Amino acid sequence: MEEESVSERVRVLISEEEIEKRICEMGKEISEFYQGEPVHLVSVLKGGVFFTCELAKRLSIPVSIDFMSVSSYGDGTKSSGVVKVVKDLDEAIEGKHVLVVEDIVDSGRTLSYLLDNLKSRKPQSLRLCTLLDKPERRVTDVQVDYTGFEIPDKFVVGYGLDYMQHYRNLPYIGVVELDA
Ligand code: IMP
Ligand code: MG
User: Fold this and answer.
1) How does pLDDT run across 120-174, given as a tens digit for each residue?
2) Under a CB-based contact definition with an 8 Å cutoff, are residues 101 and 124 in contact?
């Protein structure tokens, strides 16, 4: 039997230069907001890691970093809103200025769960920073404090974001196009 070949192409949506410039601006804005106070970054695995590293390098305030991994049950393409903690934080966050760093806010379900979960641990403050936001797709209200780029309702990859675990390492944000 002949195999049907399906290839994918990735079209650049946001270039590496644009992302770096924007992260620089965000780093400045965030550093100014915390006024020298230490900030504890909670990076959301796996997608948030690339953005977290770049952002951390642009912060001029004392920084500590921890990681959390959550998975949402769904039918594969849509999250159901039922979220499970796969890897919890290593350290307590009580009394700390916590900044959650995420790759993308889509329906908002994962973040809404995560923020409620973290809030119950009594941080001194809790804010959310995301590289990308797809506001059109929002189902659950989430307060986003810092957004890199608002993007249209397109499936994107790169800079930590994957398509079936591929493309996380692309240094830009791209849109996957399938040609049969
Ligand atoms: P939601 O906001 O709970 O719907 O889920 C957000 C999560 O879905 C993100 O953390 C990503 O892991 C994933 N996601 C949403 N949109 C995209 C996309 O365009 N490309 C890759 N992953 C996405
Ligand atoms: Mg994610």
Assistant:
1) 999 999 999 999 999 999 999 999 999 999 999 999 999 999 999 999 999 999 9
2) no
Residue 3 CA, ligand 1 centroid: distance in Å: 31
**Is 176 within a domain?**
no
Question: Is 10 close to ligand 1, i.e. is its CB under 6 Å away?
Answer: no
Ordered alpha helix ranges (H), the chain: 16-34, 48-57, 109-119
- Enumerate residues 6+ apart whose C-beta is below 8 A from 60: 27, 28, 31
What is the CATH number for 51?
3.40.50.2020
Number of compact structural domains in the chain: 1
- Tell me whether residue 119 is in a domain: yes
Q: Is residue 170 part of a domain?
A: no
* pTM, entire model: 0.92
